[in-house]
Amino acid sequence: MNLDDPDDKSFEPEAFPMMELEFPNSHASERYLLLAPRDPDHYHPVYCLEASLYVIVEFYLTPAQQSLFGTIPTAILSNITRDISLTPSPLSSPSKSISSLDSSPPSSLSSLSSCPSTPPKVNYLRQVQRAINRQDGPLFIRTMNTINALLRTLKYPPLPSDPFDDSPRNELKAAVASWTCVPKEVRGRVYEETYQRCVGPSAMRLEKSYKVWSNEVYGELLPHLLSEIFSVTGLGPNSLFMDLGSGVGNVVLQASMLTGCTSYGIEIGKMPAQLARAQLEQMRKRCRMWGFSMGEVELEEGDMLKSQRVPEMMKKADVVLINNKVFAQTLNEAIRASFLDLKEGAIVVSLATFWDNTKNITERNVNDMSAIFQVTERPYRSGSVSWGNGGGSYYLHRVDREGYRKIQERIESSSSRASRLRR
């Protein structure tokens, strides 16, 4: 750069090396810079392309179609995220024990629809790995051009000779129709691609914007724990999920992508809220690129205690998540009051309980607003949260007004009998 003239463009390169990858949906592709980061822990475009390619081949192609591309290198496959990752990391270095492979393209792509029963002479996926390992740019470009040609032939089969016949289907999209749910590896790629493009570049500024260990921030629940929470609370396409203090939107986005539910998140921090909106826009695009849809998501920037939208949503919510691990008692009390609007059977998930589940309901505490909850304590294992390496507990508070009413009647009846005996 020209330090004396920031508008001087003469030091900028004329063109960066680029490579495209065809995604499953029709007319969906992405271009990647063929550049490596100085810091190996930072986003690596080539590794990102490689991981997405392997997931496409593994989950969108039939075995016969996969044979056209070769076998997925196990040295890399074992490092592809097997669940949704909130903290993306580059893949490990490819194996060095790879034999020399031919780089010639297939003689014909027109016969692809017939899908040969025997693998081709060239294992293109292993050849991609070999090119990355050797940093062989020309080999990588030649191999990826061939792979993209194969993918395009599957996406856009030749049109029938009769113009009145139905157009052939996109073979990659056909796989989606057969799924009962989106494979976690596919969801993992969508989430990682989204996070890398929206939050990753702003990670340092985001960290500085937070008041550490305050009411506004403590840490994140990681994917494995979130998936468990969504499962045990029964979130589904007809559910409404709320996240009070939604940060950069990781939880609401994962909830809607994983379960198809409608999600609502509110965040008081300006920068986290901005990144959440960016992630939502990016994830919607990514889901379309991969050929599936996610549930609706609504994001709000503001104070959960002052928002007019929170009481409206609370009345309809099925599951409310709040990471109140370090909330001040006054904040917990203020939030607890809003739970009176919850419908019967709704569940509040928290990291600190709003009602001591070891405490029996008695005449003294029967009027406590949290007595409407049936509380279950559940353990989480090491690696489930971002703020520590050990395990811990989270709490499910299920609204049970009918059960509370029966307890209240029993206590009132017992109190009345005791009063008569004293008289």
Automatic annotation (TrEMBL):
<keyword id="KW-0489">Methyltransferase</keyword>
<dbReference type="GO" id="GO:0032259">
    <property type="term" value="P:methylation"/>
</dbReference>
<protein>
    <recommendedName>
        <fullName>Histone-lysine N-methyltransferase, H3 lysine-79 specific</fullName>
        <ecNumber>2.1.1.360</ecNumber>
    </recommendedName>
</protein>
<dbReference type="GO" id="GO:0006281">
    <property type="term" value="P:DNA repair"/>
</dbReference>
<keyword id="KW-0156">Chromatin regulator</keyword>
<dbReference type="GO" id="GO:0140956">
    <property type="term" value="F:histone H3K79 trimethyltransferase activity"/>
</dbReference>
<feature type="domain" description="DOT1">
    <location>
        <begin position="87"/>
        <end position="412"/>
    </location>
</feature>
<dbReference type="InterPro" id="IPR030445">
    <property type="entry name" value="H3-K79_meTrfase"/>
</dbReference>
<dbReference type="GO" id="GO:0000077">
    <property type="term" value="P:DNA damage checkpoint signaling"/>
</dbReference>
<keyword id="KW-0949">S-adenosyl-L-methionine</keyword>
<feature type="region of interest" description="Disordered">
    <location>
        <begin position="91"/>
        <end position="120"/>
    </location>
</feature>
<dbReference type="Pfam" id="PF08123">
    <property type="entry name" value="DOT1"/>
</dbReference>
<feature type="compositionally biased region" description="Low complexity">
    <location>
        <begin position="91"/>
        <end position="116"/>
    </location>
</feature>
<dbReference type="InterPro" id="IPR025789">
    <property type="entry name" value="DOT1_dom"/>
</dbReference>
<keyword id="KW-0808">Transferase</keyword>
<comment type="similarity">
    <text>Belongs to the class I-like SAM-binding methyltransferase superfamily. DOT1 family.</text>
</comment>
<dbReference type="InterPro" id="IPR029063">
    <property type="entry name" value="SAM-dependent_MTases_sf"/>
</dbReference>
<dbReference type="GO" id="GO:0005634">
    <property type="term" value="C:nucleus"/>
</dbReference>
<keyword id="KW-0539">Nucleus</keyword>
<comment type="function">
    <text>Histone methyltransferase that specifically trimethylates histone H3 to form H3K79me3. This methylation is required for telomere silencing and for the pachytene checkpoint during the meiotic cell cycle by allowing the recruitment of RAD9 to double strand breaks. Nucleosomes are preferred as substrate compared to free histone.</text>
</comment>
